[in-house]
TrEMBL record:
Protein's name according to its UniProt entry: Carboxymethylenebutenolidase
Pfam families the record matches: DLH
Coiled coil ranges: none
SUPFAM superfamilies the UniProt entry points to: alpha/beta-Hydrolases
Lineage of the species this protein comes from: Bacteria, Bacillati, Actinomycetota, Actinomycetes, Mycobacteriales
InterPro entries (alphabetical): AB_hydrolase_fold, Dienelactn_hydro, Dienelactone_hydrolase-like
Domain Dienelactone hydrolase: 14-227
GO molecular function, one term: hydrolase activity
Length: 235
């Protein structure tokens, strides 16, 4: 896994890139971390996507300082729907597209906070978006107008996102956007994130759930196979 420096409109930031084995070109995937930031689990996700055949990049949205970045991130999610984090994600996508080993087709995957950004950038030139337990604040329909196809995964026992799956389903249906939204029963927020605290969390019924995570990734890869393969994307 290679660590690189990206140049975005709001400054430089760190990112990691993983290439599939063999010869390209490959479709590209941008992975957006959750509020924990860069972690061993995020790196495992990047490797998994590359192993499946995607040129994968993960930008570190906390590169300019965690506290400062968290403020701008939640300002973008809650108030503006834009801002430095969105531009950072798009810079990561542009880095993939500029790579001669990329077909030009791209998708975005995000977790929690990153899932919200995966939805925010869905209308901004991606070919597919795969958010895990995402939420938007405000008018879903306005924010998702022109969105690419979306495959979203939620937890039934998630007190943070009550009503979010329904809002997303209604908005995408009204907009005529192809989508696959699934709410996993008997699991909680962050069911697809494997962290060191998971053994303790599982005692309370929280944290990683292998069956739900496996099914969600099966749906995502099937969705990506449909929307990221084929001829090179026109410029």
């Amino acid at each position: 896994m290679e660590t690189i420096e990206l140049t975005a409109p709001d400054g430089r930031l760190e990112a990691v890139v993983e290439r599939p084995s063999g010869d390209g070109p490959w479709p590209g995937v941008v992975v957006i971390h959750d509020g924990v930031g860069f972690s061993a689990d995020l790196r495992r996700t990047v490797r998994m996507l590359a192993d499946y055949g995607y040129l994968t990049i993960a930008p570190n949205l906390f590169s300019r300082g965690r506290v400062r970045c968290i403020r701008t991130i939640y300002r973008a999610l809650v108030f503006t729907g834009d801002g430095p984090p969105v531009r950072d994600v798009l810079a990561a996508r542009d880095r993939l597209v500029a790579d001669p080993d990329c077909t030009g087709r791209t998708a975005v995957v995000g977790f929690c906070m990153g899932g919200g950004f995966a939805l925010l950038v869905a209308p901004k030139g991606f070919d597919a978006s795969a958010p895990f337990y995402p939420s938007l604040y405000g008018d879903y329909r306005a924010m998702l107008d022109g969105a690419c196809p979306v495959v979203a995964s939620y937890a039934q026992r998630d007190p943070i996102l009550i009503g979010a799956p329904r809002k997303l389903e209604e908005a995408l249906t009204e907009l005529g956007v192809e989508h696959d939204i699934k709410v996993y029963p008997k699991v909680t927020h962050a069911f697809a994130n494997c962290t060191p605290a998971d053994p303790l969390l599982r005692v309370t019924g929280l944290g990683y759930n292998e069956d739900a995570s496996r099914d969600a990734w099966h749906r995502i890869f099937s969705f990506f196979d449909t929307h990221l393969t084929g001829d090179e994307k026109p410029s």
